[in-house]
Amino acid sequence: LPVKIHANLETQGHDHDLFLLENVEHKTSVPSGYTGIYTVSDLKALQGSDAKNNYILMNDLDLSGQNWTPIKFKSYDYKGTFDGNGYTISNLFIASNNTSFAGLFGTTSGATIQNLIVTGADITNSVGSNVRSKAGVLIGLAVNTTVSNCGVTNSKVCAYATSDPSSSGGLIGIVSGNCKLNNCYVFADVIGNGHV
User: Fold this and answer.
1) Using CA atoms, how far apart are residues 15 and 23, in angstroms rounded to an integer?
2) 171 — phi, psi (to 5°)?
3) What separation in angstroms does the CA of 42 have from each of 3, 47, 68, 101, 160?
4) Could you tell me the maximum CA-CA distance found in the chain, to the nearest angstrom?
5) Of residues 7, 1, 2, the one with CA closest to residue 156
6) Which residues 6+ apart lie within 8 Å of 139 measured at CB?
7) Residue 58 pLDDT
8) Strands 61-62 and 180-182
9) Would you tell me which of 21, 52, 113, 194 could form a disulfide with 165, CB atoms 3.0–4.6 Å apart?
10) Which residues of the chain have pLDDT under 50?
11) Cβ-count burial 45-59 (b if 16+ within 10 Å, e if not)
């Protein structure tokens, strides 16, 4: 039977977004070595790009009205730094029955995701036999990855598989190797018929 967990973290009465990112000031210019992400189209353009590139979010982005395809790169795993720059990605929606790893990013390896809030995410990854289902709001599968100063609010993550056990998590679907989570929070419902 599916298992549902309501993940919640108290922030001692503070507004959680401000509480988490109170020391993050929006950079107004793109730092050297980074590519700026200004629009939803810019974010979509990461598909198939160089996995070692560094990116920085320069605006809040609203992904309403689309079924998001988890970002995959030329070498599959993202290996660079994605800096949310204190901004928010809202209304991330994924309804998939043909991907193993669902999230804003499909898979990461040796990557850093930082200073990002995702709110209003709704992710359902349901796959058939002999296919893995791993779902998280930020990352489906994280290998040797660091996630710092990130938050998920008002979100739902579901992972189902008919044979291989599913894995679902508020931030990350499943981790492998030396992964680190620093100063992160989740307010989400996490549902699955495997590892939750």
Assistant:
1) 14
2) -95, -50
3) 36, 10, 14, 22, 31
4) 50
5) 7
6) 101, 103, 104, 105, 106, 107, 108, 113, 145, 147, 171, 172, 173
7) 97
8) unpaired
9) 194
10) 1, 3-5, 9-14, 16-19
11) ebeebebebbbbbbb
- Entry pTM: 0.85
Residue with tokens 């079924």: 67
- What residue type is 56 in one-letter code? I
Give all strands (DSSP E) within the chain, no chain letters. 3-7, 34-37, 54-57, 61-62, 81-83, 88-90, 93-96, 101-102, 105-109, 112-114, 117-119, 122-127, 134-136, 139-143, 146-148, 151-161, 167-169, 172-176, 180-182, 185-192
Q: For residues 140 and 102, is the Cβ–Cβ distance under 8 A? A: yes
| Total residues belonging to the chain | 196
What is the reported pLDDT for 47?
85
CA distance 66 to 16: 27
